Amino acid sequence: MRAILLAIFAIVFAGAAVAQSDYRVNSGDVLSIEVFEDTTLNREVLVLPDGRFSFPFAGTVAARGLTTVEVASTISSKIASNFASPPNVFVTVRQLRPVVAAAAQAAAPPVTISIYFLGAVAKPGLAELKPGTTLLQALAQGGGFNNFAATKRVQLRRTNPATGQQTLYQFDYKALANGASMARDVVLADGDVILVPERRLFE
Q: What distance in Å separates the CA atoms of residue 60 and residue 64, rounded to the nearest whole number?
């Protein structure tokens, strides 16, 4: 009888499983989890921003980037010690993350951007600045240089968050201080690093 019930249960979920077999779980999704051997464990869970959720006996389960079949397999293996045989777990996506809210949040400009000062500067470390702040403005707000700064070789390092590729900009602040013109003052982006090397001997 149990085998028949299990077969029926599997057929019920087969259609949903096929439809969702290629979908990768994301933060904000609501998952429906069914454990055939113990229905008291059945529940809906929200995948948190870190891509995880909690489940009885399984603790924290990493779900982001996995298919529903892979999530089910993970849960089954984590709770198996509580059953005489590996439990049958079925996972379906009950609700996708709220796309509209996510898009609105992505479109909203940040209140501040995080800029990092390194090297021979007066105030090394993290600085929270307004969007639109330029490199020269940031140096002024960051307190400028210390006595060992190589102001001819000020660097701006910017990393592309999508590819991880880093771009290096270098300029001569000393020349600017002496009246040289700058083609354009670079507008800073979140995560930019301003690095000021120390002077070399006789520099």
A: 12
Which letter, b or e, does each residue of 80-100 get, where b requires 16 or more Cβ atoms within 10 Å of its Cβ? eeeeeeebbbbbbbeeeeeee
Nearest of 194, 184, 198, 181 to residue 138 by alpha carbon: 194
For residue 63, the one-letter residue type is A
Rounded to two decimals, the pTM is 0.45
Q: Regarding predicted confidence, which is higher, 201 or 148?
A: 148
Query: Residues with Cβ < 8 Å from 71, sequence gap 6 or more?
Result: 25, 31, 61, 63, 91
**Alpha helices of the chain — where are they, by DSSP H?**
2-20, 68-79, 99-107, 135-141, 173-177
Give the per-residue pLDDT at 108: 61
What pLDDT is recorded for position 21?
Answer: 61
| Chain position carrying tokens 């190589």 | 150
Angstrom distance (rounded) from CA 113 to CA 11 = 51
